[in-house]
Design brief:
InterPro entries: Polyketide_cyclase/dehydratase, START-like_dom_sf. The protein is of the alpha+beta class and about 160 residues long. It is about 35% helix and about 40% strand. It contains 6 helices and 7 strands.
């Protein structure tokens, strides 16, 4: 488990929260998770994710994500706003006045990796403040299995490579 200090106040701001243990080395789990090309494998409502900036992944790297939200497809730009190799990363996106911030923390734990996820939804205008609870509920529904699917994808990758 991550300590309160390591979670840095997430418990007060997090609208979404999950945690999972993966029996794989931290470096392997982090490398798979941080490569957002893998997002459609771990988030069933994400249709595609394409890197649109040059260079290695780090602060400022952007991906274009196409996602099914309700009855329509939406496209948003995800940007890495924090990146600490093999420890944590935070991605931010804004669509139609709603900002979403997803933070992933990784820690070696019992011969594997503990992954802690928190998500925050911020309304950027008055109208979106009324819609914000619906967006949170939709994201909880759509992204609820992302860490269990991350674990499954990493495990299946190993079986495929054997």
């Amino acid at each position: 488990m991550l300590t309160k200090e390591e979670s840095k106040g997430d418990e007060m701001m997090a609208d979404l929260r999950d945690q999972i243990f993966i029996e794989k080395p931290l470096e392997e789990v982090f490398a798979f998770a941080v490569d957002l090309h893998n997002t459609p494998k771990v988030m069933v409502y994400v249709l595609s994710s394409e890197k649109i900036t040059e260079g290695p992944i780090g602060v400022g790297t952007q991906f274009r994500e196409r996602r099914k939200m309700g009855a329509q497809d939406t496209t948003s730009i995800l940007e890495f706003i924090e990146y600490i190799p093999n420890r944590s990363y935070t991605i931010q996106s804004e669509t139609n006045g709603i900002e979403v911030i997803y933070r992933y923390q990784f820690k070696t734990y019992d011969n594997g990796t503990l992954v802690d996820f928190t998500g925050e939804v911020v309304a950027k205008n008055m109208m979106m403040r009324f819609i914000r609870p619906m967006v949170i509920n939709m994201l909880k529904k759509e992204d609820k299995d992302c860490l269990s699917l991350l674990k499954k994808a990493i495990e299946q990758r190993e079986k495929i490579n054997k």
